């Protein structure tokens, strides 16, 4: 579909990757970009239209769908990462928070905006996923679980919405240079580059974006994941969490 003249809603558009998505859409000619954020006063770009939206609040999701009834592109970008393991974490609060935002929030937005997109000719949904959709790194297991669930959601809604002409794009990437990944000291992707690739995918009708070499390598290794992906992960875990001899 054409970005030029389109109307988009980007969740979490006040910073980081969400702001990059919004800027890329405007640069490509989008007529209106709504910034769905918890605090509308945090939107500093005057080109954006702030919309109060906590993706975990059902009433706010429905209100956003009613207010933004002209949307033909939905970008589900809002997300959290609590860096919690499964067993080693102090509790399950981090895992519940990640599922609430990353999975259930995405599901709620897709459900609320599917009829909006249908009325507007089909349009597109973009779901921001992760290389962690396919592999579970140490120390962020529950985040990976939420992204795996969101990948399943993305594949499922693509099937359900194809008949109404809605393009569903999955964007997978490794660590991106945003506030979320600030504590991780590895090479990171430029948010603007991820946004550029995503805009190109929407216009080309491409259903999947693999944003970097690491992500492409992880997906290619899935058939042999237990033999190729997990031994180094196991080694790092064992190094950081040595067992006390009994």
What does this structure look like?
With 246 residues, the protein is of the alpha/beta class. It has one domain: NAD(P)-binding Rossmann-like Domain (Rossmann fold), CATH 3.40.50. It is 43% helix and 13% strand. Helix 3 runs parallel beside helix 4. The longest helix has 27 residues, at 93-119.
CATH class: Alpha Beta
Strand order of the largest sheet: 3-2-1-4-5-6-7
> Main sheet?
7 strands, parallel
Low-confidence regions:
none
Average pLDDT, all residues = 95
Structural class by secondary-structure content: alpha/beta
How do the helices and strands follow one another from N- to C-terminus?
EHEEHEHEHEHEHHH
Tell me the overall shape.
Answer: globular
CATH homologous superfamily assignment: NAD(P)-binding Rossmann-like Domain
How many strand segments? 7
Percent of residues in β-strands: 5-15%
Number of helices: 8
Percent of residues in helices: 40-55%
Query: If you compute it from the alpha carbons, what radius of gyration comes out, rounded to the nearest whole angstrom?
Result: 18 Å
CATH topological fold name: Rossmann fold
Distance between the termini: 62 Å
List descriptors.
single chain, 246 residues, alpha/beta, Rossmann fold, 7-stranded parallel beta sheet, 43% helix
